[in-house]
Design a protein that fits this description.
This protein is mainly β. The chain is built from 4 helices and 17 strands. Strands 1, 2, 3, 5, 6, 11, 12, 13, 14, 15, 16 and 17 form a 12-stranded antiparallel sheet that branches. A 3-stranded antiparallel sheet has the order 4-9-10, with no helix packed on it. It has a two-stranded antiparallel sheet with strand order 7-8. Strand 7 and strand 8 form a beta hairpin. 39% of the residues are buried. The N terminus is likely disordered.
Length: 280
């Protein structure tokens, strides 16, 4: 799937945020049926529609510290987060965790790296791709547009059943304490359908935003201790993923949930012996 082009402009490392006048509106959100999926613009309705059949994974970055970097290719549970965000000079930027602006799930969010948190925001037409090791049945993203945003529009494009579909955001219906505005987009595949790839993107426009939360529904019913590759069983196939969790400084909630075998909140050498016993 081809990603949207990345908008380049100038600022500290050559990126500029664009605050403008804000228009507030009220609307009622209803799911939109799209051939092999249902699109949602309301998080509560999306969560309610997921049901209780499989594991729901929420990545809200709160297990990490502000300032932590998230390089392209970072694993988040079953998925890999990849992107190619550049400065105007063509230099790549990593994503970074911040807590400067308000969020819907305090405290952290992600944006392009910057020494100035108020400028660490995605620009219109930036995009981020998620690819999943194991297929998922649903994906939802909570965007937060910076204060003063005008007519922001966000999207998820996913390959569902071999066909590309796009879900679109509706108007924001609330304002956070710093006057930033949340937008939600979600896709739930029809029964029997899954997706292994999704791109998070926005339209061209004069606005900037952060990624507050990424939610997806796995195809396994629950976490299994030691199942580091999230295929539903604990065996030798989990060794590479367990080693990654053991050595990686980035704290992934699924790494902790599956590889923290002594349940102390950390993945470290104290978990190795139990892991060996589980796979032998």
């Amino acid at each position: 799937m081809t990603s949207k082009p990345h908008k380049l402009s100038s600022s500290f490392a050559s990126r500029t945020v664009f605050p403008t006048a804000s228009l507030l509106g009220l609307t009622f959100f209803c799911p939109t049926v799209l051939l092999a999926q249902t699109a949602y613009t309301d998080k509560a309705a999306f969560i309610a529609a997921l049901g209780n059949g499989s594991l729901v994974i929420t990545n809200n970055w709160d297990a990490n510290q502000p300032g932590d970097l998230i390089p392209s290719g970072t694993k988040i549970c079953q998925g890999l987060l990849t992107y190619n965000i550049l400065t105007a000079d063509g230099e790549p930027l990593d994503l970074q965790i911040f807590d400067y602006f308000d969020t819907t799930t305090p405290l952290n969010y992600i944006g392009p790296e910057s020494p100035e948190p108020r400028r660490a925001l995605f620009l219109a037409s930036d995009s981020v791709m998620l690819t999943f090791d194991q297929p998922v049945t649903a994906i939802g993203v909570q965007f937060v547009a910076c204060p003063g945003t005008f007519e922001a529009s966000f999207h998820i494009t996913a390959i569902v059943g071999g066909t590309e579909f796009t879900a679109d955001s509706g108007p924001s219906t609330t304002v956070l304490s710093d006057w930033s505005e949340p937008y939600f987009v979600g896709i739930i595949a029809d029964p029997g359908e899954t997706t292994s790839e999704a791109t998070i993107w926005s339209d061209e426009g004069l606005f900037s935003y952060s990624l507050d939360e990424i939610i997806f529904q796995a195809t396994i019913p629950a976490f299994v201790l030691g199942d580091a590759n999230l295929d539903g069983t604990t065996d030798v196939l989990d060794v590479p993923a367990f080693v990654d969790a053991l050595l990686d400084s980035y704290t992934d909630m699924c790494d902790v949930a599956t590889s923290d075998l002594n349940i102390d909140g950390q993945v470290n050498g104290n978990d190795v012996q139990t892991f060996i016993e589980l796979i032998t």
